[in-house]
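for ur thesis appendix - Alkylation response protein AidB-like acyl-CoA dehydrogenase. copy paste whatever u need, i formatted it the way the template wanted (i think)
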Amino acid sequence: MSRNTPALTGDQSDLVAMLDALMSDVDIQLSDARPDEVAHLRARLADLGVWTLAVPERLGGGGGDQALAAVAVARLARRWAALAWAAVQAHAAAELLEGHPGLLARVHAGDVAIAVTGGHRVDAAGEAPHVVVLGAEGARLYGPESLHYTAVRHTGLDGALTRIVRFDGDGTTLGGDVDGARVRLRLGAAAVAAGIADAAAEAALGYSAVRKQFGGALTALPAVRDALFDSSGAAAVQLRQVVQSAEAAPWQAAAVLESACETAIDAAARAVQSHGGYGYLTEYPVERLLRDAVSLRAACDTAATRRDGALDLAGSAKG
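the 3d part is after this line
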């Protein structure tokens, strides 16, 4: 647990300890070049009950609340942002897959990856995922046989196997609450961003406390302390925002997501700066955190999310 995290319940603390132990035990960096490792970790998280932790028990999930899931996702994002984002998509898809119990069971088990998108970008952390497309008229499901991929350059989220997809056919219409799926997707992504911001702020503070300059630690400099306060304070605000189970309207979830993504990028950029020239070396985690934050914002398409949220907000004024 970091100093930016709000007070956790016993269950939340136990979950954080379990994930920390896993990330310590499995000391690897995710890579698109090693999809088998990504699939193995996806299945391991499923075995631990984390992958679809907050999906209702009636649908085969863990039945946890949204706050518990947010704690898990934020913690995972500190090290494995691509897997955290993929778990968010699995949660968002689950209630739309009630009419497809076989596929849903495989999602719960981590046997297959599933992407949830509003466009053509896929970051599913799987080589042959199923894809759920959320559109204005509802949601549609496409199987791997209906998908054709084009490689795309991306900054971070290594291990997400980011690609652009072309769809064959019209897919299968899904029932369920599409707006609810959007809210879960947005709030889950915000938790990923909050986790990245948390890790970046902690890294900046830790480095500044031990780095000596002008005869003392960097934290002796008021300007440095102010910058650290900005980063840690912003991370703390975002964590408090996402670690709750309150219902949210689609436009509110859009606002939370946009704010969280910008906070993550700002905190990670400050962390890189705090490390000086070392911050740009891949040996330091802050370089990866900045790349992950930038790619998460792209994966979520926050510009489109903002437009949709603004339309939803304006529509709510009509009564």
